[in-house]
Amino acid sequence: MPSVVVTGAGSGVGRAVALKFAAEGWQVALVGRGAPPLEETAAIADAAGRVVPFPCDVSVPEQVMAMGTAVLERLGDVDVLVNSAGINVPRRSLETLSSDDWHRVLGTNLHGAYYCVQAFLPGMRRRGTGTIVNINSDAGQTARDVSGAAYVASKFGLRGLTQQINAEERAHGVRACSICPRDINTPLLDKRPQPPAPDIRARMLQPDDLAACVWLVATLPPRVVLDEISLSSR
């Protein structure tokens, strides 16, 4: 039975991705900082034994190392890693951004993805197969004032990390894709200085739209490397 690790699985895009893979019969490792949201995702999936919570703050390398060991012991080889964990802060402009918040955003959005890659890439390389999907943003392609300096820097870095994985690892059968959506209707919008109104959120991309993209990337023939996907709503 194939296995996927999904970070940020307690809400938003991460939860939608986890539920999609669970519905398709995969084993799913749910990774996130809080146990209750992960347990809620597992309950929604209703796939006892196949969907397992692994509480972990991905910005802490020691926690990621322990999580990686636990996942491999419980679920076996990991076929797909989806780095969906992401944060932002309300005070995000260069004028108001604190050094602590800068490091906090980079710690989760970029360093956390790197730590997770390093936890599962060796096994993929050894087996000669594996897919890594990084949930990025259009702010990782072109800076936006609404996104803030730390978020933009983290997403530009994540895009570079994705490209480097492909540059080094495609020869070993491992591929990576950076998915770069415009605005998504997730709880992260609540962190904006001025959160969008419900009618605006309804017209945005929805978490299930991103889950469909991740499923596409994960299930393409092994010979296909889809480097990047850009998408927006109408």
CATH superfamily: NAD(P)-binding Rossmann-like Domain
Q: What number is the mean pLDDT?
A: 95
What is the tally of helical segments?
7
Largest sheet: 7 strands, parallel
Using the CA coordinates, give the radius of gyration.
17 Å
Helix content: 40-55%
In total, the number of strands is 7
Number of domains: 1
Q: Would you give an account of this structure?
A:
The protein is an alpha/beta fold. The protein has one domain (3-231): Rossmann fold. The chain has helices at residues 12-23, 35-45, 61-75, 99-127, 149-169, 198-203, 207-219, and strands at residues 3-7, 27-32, 51-55, 80-83, 130-135, 174-181, 228-231. A seven-stranded parallel beta sheet has the order 3-2-1-4-5-6-7, with helices on both faces. Helix 5 (149-169) links the parallel strand 5 (130-135) and strand 6 (174-181). The radius of gyration is 17 Å and the shape is globular. The N and C termini lie far apart (37 Å).
Features:
single chain; 234 residues; alpha/beta; Rossmann fold; 7-stranded parallel beta sheet; 7 strands; globular
Chart the SSEs and their pairings.
Blueprint: E1 3-7, H1 12-23, E2 27-32, H2 35-45, E3 51-55, H3 61-75, E4 80-83, H4 99-127, E5 130-135, H5 149-169, E6 174-181, H6 198-203, H7 207-219, E7 228-231
Parallel strand pairs: 1-2, 1-4, 2-3, 4-5, 5-6, 6-7
Helix pairs in contact: 1-2, 1-7, 3-4, 4-5
